[in-house]
Amino acid sequence: MSQEAEGGSPGTGRPKRAKWTVGKASMVLRIMRWKRRGSAQSSGRRGHIPAPSLHGSRPVGHLRPRPVPSKAPSARLASPKPKPREPRREAASRTTQPNPEPEARRSKGKTPPLPAAAAMESVETLVAHIQALSGSPEDLAQLHGLLKQADSEALRAHSAALLPLLSQLHPGAHSLGYLFLLDAFLSAPANLKAHAGGDLLATVADFLISCSAEQIRLSPDKFVNVCKVLKSEVMQLNAPIRGIAPLRAAVRKIQASSEHLTSLHAEYLTLCLLAKQYKAGLSVLEDDIFEVDQPKDLFLYCYYGGMIYIGLKKFRKALELLHNAVTAPMSSLNAITIEAYKKYVLVSLIQNGQVPSFPKYASSTAQRNLKNHAQIYVDLSTCYGNGSYSELETFIQSNTEKFQTDNNLGLVKQVLSSMYKRNIQRLTQTYLTLSLEDIASSVQLNTPKEAEMHVLRMIEDGEIHATINQKDGMVSFHEDPEQYKSSEMVEHIDSSIQRLMALSKKLTSIDENISCDHAFLMKSGRERGRGFDYDDFDSVPHKYF
Question: pTM (2 decimals)?
């Protein structure tokens, strides 16, 4: 059989059927690869990356038979099938498989810690929000929400880097954001230690003076914390006078009105006492207080205020504040009330020569227990009432250590000095004329000259009305010369009447509000052992019901 009859082609060294057999086999292999890749993609395996094709991305219909070498045609057919690249698919699957650990964390409600760079970027973004949202009340409300979300461990963990960022904010225009960043910085003791005194105090003081009252009242707790840090720092530096002006401004900014007592009042009065700037404390003590947030604030305000008036020798005003601290409602005795009562006894002896009994509106707790905790002061008042200077002096000397422990020794010495004045006042009720020598003998002074000095001082202070005859050394006692007819006295009486009328109106309003308070009515009803009845409150206008 010839080569052509056998299907061979002339001029070629290979059979024609072998050529088509090899081409078909090659095409079958390629089609199988395409099917395998299609089935792998449709199987739903996440992250599977198909193996690259031999001829790019041509469709199957465009495949052409590749030329096959003439020698050993069966070698192509005998070659093993290429295996799919499983390791490559597994690696790709691992790269695209989501990490289950962050999802587990998110499911528990925990936020993974941010890197330092990311945290600082978020803080800088927060500063940009502060600069943009410090205008209208709506913007401030939105900013407040953002600040509360950012005020977390991440912000405090990078608090050391917050101080430079404050230079990008204005304490007056961006007060709310400035407050949050400053509070976060001051909350770290390491920051306070590293920046003790100097620029840090100046930064805090400038903020307290320049801040916006409207903005800082959105976060009063943080504002109070910043003020307390300032007070603590100036006390550690033994320079309390540096904190007086900033805290005075802070008190006015956080107050809703001048009748509102805040927790900063006591802090401010403490600095005034330590710096001995008693007149500076009058700026808050002269206000009438009707609104109190915490009972402790009232006790401290009255106690420190009484001490400031004692330093100014205004014993009548001191007595009023100490009286309020002693007679304020209380369910249990506290240390502030005990210390206030000790000073109340001493000031009462200096001002009035006796200690009054407790009024009816004082709490039963104070009436039963106060004297037991201040027995030495009760004994002092008893000794004072005897009128013997030598006996009182002996008593004070025997208890000097106790009075010094209570930091009341200086006030006790003023009580001893007031004994002379009290005995001289008793003489005015008995005699119209008396010699200086007799006065010295009666009040136990050493010489008539000392008696003359005491009488002159009492005349200048308006405590007695008398004249001294230098020629014969006689003292004549007179009645009060005031006839209450002068224009000054009329103005004084008129201003007193106006103040009392305003005070009466205010008290009436407070009484009506309390009488209409549901909690008060329920409490008063339980104390009576029955439910409350509106007929019990007929004095209250019906418009409130």
Answer: 0.71
